């Protein structure tokens, strides 16, 4: 007895029925999984932080032998150094002199040179502190040192994992939050603030207490009053 040849319509119908049966079986198996076999949700990767690195630059001021006066060439060198450094908010500037362990005459000359450099910087509205350095020779060297924090932003985007196929797995990508960190690092005015907040000054207790007195007297400031008056 010859069996009828199955048509394309009957094949597709049987295939759909088989797929549906498999799907129902899988769903039933998933519903019966114990809680300890259900994988927990994978946490998102931590946002890559912006790092603040401390860097310093130094410029030795040229002086003539046994002379504490700034020559036009020396001031031009100082101006060029300051332009390259582009002094901004948060920069720490010090004028150091090699006086520690130096002979008295050398120490006196180094102090005079340092005073001349600090005076020149103040004439350009640049405040600098004085610092002592160990004398390496009897040259009474004086240097301008500028230190600052520099925001080190993460390198992103990083698509290296895509080349090995690792970027397609079900896990958080290392670029998560990276652009936010880059934008934050580029916007911060003083990268030193990334290491900690600035100290606050003393609070005015008498002024702060006026708010408590107004509350007790029922004269709380109204947020609806643009003139800043009190609400009776």
Describe the protein's architecture and organization.
The protein is of the alpha+beta class and 232 residues long. The protein has a domain at 51-152: OmpA-like domain (60s Ribosomal Protein L30, Chain: A, 2-Layer Sandwich). It is built from six helices and four strands, in the order αβαβαββααα. It has helices at residues 8-31, 72-85, 104-123, 160-163, 178-187, 205-216, and strands at residues 51-60, 92-100, 129-134, 142-152. Helix 3 (104-123) links the parallel strand 2 and strand 3 (129-134). The model is unreliable at 1-11 and 26-33 (pLDDT under 50).
Write the layout of secondary structure elements.
Elements: H1 8-31, E1 51-60, H2 72-85, E2 92-100, H3 104-123, E3 129-134, E4 142-152, H4 160-163, H5 178-187, H6 205-216
Parallel strand pairs: 2-3
Antiparallel strand pairs: 1-4, 2-4
Termini, distance in Å?
A: 104 Å
Q: What is the helix tally?
A: 6
- Using DSSP, what is the number of strands? 4
The CATH class label of the domain at 51-152 is Alpha Beta
Output the radius of gyration. Answer: 36 Å
Overall 3D form: flat
Tell me, rounded to a whole number, the average pLDDT: 77
The biggest sheet, with number of strands, parallel, antiparallel or mixed sense and barrel status, is:
4 strands, mixed
Poorly predicted parts? 1-11, 26-33
Helix/strand-derived class?
A: alpha+beta
Measured as a percent range, the helix fraction is: 25-40%
**Proportion of beta-strand residues:** 15-25%
Name the CATH homologous superfamily of the domain at 51-152.
Answer: OmpA-like domain
Examine the secondary-structure arrangement and name the CATH architecture of the domain at 51-152: 2-Layer Sandwich
CATH fold assignment of the domain at 51-152? 60s Ribosomal Protein L30, Chain: A
How are the strands of the largest sheet arranged?
Answer: 1-4-2-3
Could you spell the SSE succession in H and E letters? HEHEHEEHHH
